Amino acid sequence: MKKPIAGFSKLSKSEKIEWIAANYTQNPQESKKILESYWNSDSRLQQLHDEFIENTISNFYMPMGIAPNFLINDRLYAIPMAIEESSVVAAASKAAKFWEGRGGFRTTVLGTEKVGQVHFIYHGSTPKLLDFFKNIKPTLLSEAEHLTQSMQKRGGGIKDIVLKDKTGELSNYYQLHCTFETQDAMGANFINSCLEQFAETLKKEALAHPDFSEQEKQLEVVMSILSNYVPNCLVKAEVRCPIDQLDLTQDISPRDFAEKMVRAVEIAKVEPYRAVTHNKGIMNGIDAVVLATGNDFRAIEAGAHAYAAKDGTYSSLTHAKIEGDLFSFWIEIPLAVGTVGGLTKLHPLVKLNLEILQQPSAVELMQIMAVAGLAQNFAAVSSLVTTGIQKGHMKMHLMNILNQHNATDKEKEAILAHFKTHTVTHRGVLNSLENLRK
Ligand code: MEV
User: Fold this and answer.
1) What is the mean pLDDT of each run of 10 residues along the chain (438 residues)?
2) How many CA atoms, within 13 angstroms, populate the side-chain half-sphere of residue 221?
3) Do 246 and 125 touch, CB atoms closer than 8 A?
4) How many angstroms separate the CA atoms of 84 and 371, rounded?
5) Contact indicator for 102, 241 with CB cutoff of 8 Å
6) What InterPro entries is this protein classified in (predicted)?
């Protein structure tokens, strides 16, 4: 029978490891060995990681790969990607190479606006509240000035505060809907600090407002928090080429291929079951760059999927069309990311990855990420409409199967050679391994 523990966070790292290994694992000695084998030998670096979160006991590694040859607005990039899924970097690299020979990717940033809200409950007259808000808006802004000065120096700050009457959706519910420009920062801390200040000013001013009744003065702030839904922090990335250049494989004519691509995207537009998987493939590319650059992939995921449902049905984030002899394929996606603050100066690999990406501004990073998503989607959908996904996927997964069965280097060599000309299946790989070991 397991018992709860009090004061776990106060234990030393080795005490935490002792406790978890003894209480939750079958073989505590072996468990401790595994946890310690992932520690960094540089104690300073290990301490840095330990201090990122609470109760750290080890590091969780992910492979980091490079997808080279991305031509974006005539500039070449090699994109670092942190991801565990076998085929993602290979697919991105393949799509990058393909489009590099066809003019590359074109990108445009359509907006950089971030959002935060103060949600509050007010029992009283709406016209009086609107009037009150009009009066206090300058105070809301001036009392946040101590927070906004350095952001303003960098060209950012608060863009606007709007009072929204949400009582149609929920009784007595109103909000301050606030928009921000945060330049190269993702801006979560800046936005949340401003919002908490707005909430303080709002409560203070309501209490002092002479036209409010006693009940109206007791305006209740429920919460103040940024929104990860950022439909106006938007980037577009596009590829296009004459159809006859879509000569990916001998098995299908370029026009048939183009039509199949368009049809596949149309299906993802109208069928949510397909759209979710279609967009998951896009996020394979985007999340890998988000992680490698120390950004918040949960925020990006949440915002991207909300955007995919913005018209009331969950739909594709990419689009495709044929106009005469021209094939175009593009993505429009909200991406609120930063290249300063957060882990960017702290995590040595993040710093290095930003250097590899030629020290992008946040706006440039949005473009690189959108391209990674588009490339990934192009690779996935082009496989789906031609050979099917399993051929390439299993080829990449082959090494995982071999490692799972402790194949030696010699066995790997022989089996990799065999599967150059045979279809990879789990059973097939095991049979080959068994035959070799006989
Ligand atoms: C697998 O991680 C991603 C795909 O399922 C994406 C797609 O179906 O478009 C291959």
Assistant:
1) 94 98 98 97 96 96 97 98 94 97 98 98 98 98 96 96 98 98 96 98 98 97 98 98 94 96 98 98 98 98 98 98 98 98 90 98 98 98 90 80 92 91 89 92
2) 19
3) no
4) 20
5) yes
6) HMG_CoA_Rdtase, HMG_CoA_Rdtase_bac-typ, HMG_CoA_Rdtase_cat_sf, HMG_CoA_Rdtase_CS, HMG_CoA_Rdtase_NAD(P)-bd_sf, HMG_CoA_Rdtase_sub-bd_dom_sf
The residue whose C-alpha atom lies closest to atom 2 belonging to ligand 1 is: 281
Catalytic residue flag (residue 296): yes
Ligand 1 residue neighbourhood (C-beta within 6 Å): 85, 277-278, 280-281, 284, 380-381, 384, 389
Q: Output the DSSP codes for 298-346.
A: HHHHHHHHHHHTTTSS---SEEEEEETTEEEEEEEEE----SBSTTTTT
Atom of ligand 1 nearest to the CA of 87: 2
Predicted local distance difference test score (pLDDT) of residue 359: 97
Instruction: Write down the pLDDT at residue 420.
Output: 86
Rounded CA-CA distance 192/227 in Å is 10
Is 393 noted as a catalytic residue in this protein?
A: yes
What are the tokens at 186? 């993702």
Three-state secondary-structure class, residue 56: coil
Distance CA 239, CA 256 (A): 18
Question: Please, are residues 296 and 189 in contact by the beta-carbon 8 Å criterion?
Answer: no
Q: Which residues contact 196 (CB under 8 A, 6 or more apart)?
A: 224
Q: Distance (Å, rounded) from C-alpha 131 to C-alpha 291?
A: 45
Catalytic residue among 184, 196, 296, 332: 296
- As beta bridge partners, residue 181 has 157
AA letter at 276: V
Looking at residue 391, what is its pLDDT? 76
Q: Find out whether 397 and 91 touch, Cβ atoms under 8 Å.
A: no
- Give me the torsion for CA of 353, 355, 359, 362, rounded to 10°: 10
What confidence score (pLDDT) does residue 400 get? 87
* Closest ligand 1 atom number to CA of residue 284: 2
Tell me, in angstroms, the distance from the centre of ligand 1 to residue 111's CA: 28
Measured in angstroms, how far is the CA atom of residue 384 from the centroid of ligand 1?
A: 8
Residue bearing the CA closest to ligand 1, atom 7: 278
* Whole-number Å distance between alpha carbons of 148 and 156: 8
Question: How many angstroms does the Cα of residue 385 sit away from the middle of ligand 1?
Answer: 12
Q: Residue 380 Cα, ligand 1 centroid: separation in angstroms?
A: 6
